[in-house]
Design brief:
With 88 residues, this protein is α/β, with parallel strands linked by helices. Helix 1 (13-19) links the parallel strand 1 (7-10) and strand 2. The longest helix has 10 residues, at 70-79. It is globular. It has a five-stranded parallel β-sheet with strand order 4-3-2-1-5. It has helices at residues 13-19, 50-55, 70-79, and strands at 7-10, 29-31, 46-49, 65-68, 83-86. Helix content is 26%, strand content 22%.
């Protein structure tokens, strides 16, 4: 069953900056690609694609950023609607 919460997919630092003031506080965030660099500057509750963090040397062992794999990303996309991408 789909949740009424939006799922926010973050692909850049600027994408996160654009997303944060527009999202509902309970909406989950997933950080991908170069967006993982935003985790160095922001302590936010989010999911981060483990592969992308490892590839960029970004540690994901905090209490707020939770490392996930592609299978978990798929589960999130199946359980949330709408899905909003932020790459600006």
């Amino acid at each position: 069953r789909r949740s009424a919460m939006s799922l926010h997919l973050i692909f850049s630092r600027q994408g996160l900056a654009s997303c944060l003031p527009r999202r509902q506080s309970e909406d989950p965030i997933v950080v991908f690609g170069d967006g993982v660099y935003a985790l160095l500057e922001n302590d936010i509750e989010c999911f981060v694609l483990k592969e992308d963090a490892i590839a960029r040397g970004i540690p994901v062992n905090s209490n707020t950023a939770h490392a996930i794999d592609y299978a978990e990303v798929v589960k999130l996309t199946l359980n949330h609607s709408p899905i909003v991408s932020w790459a600006d």
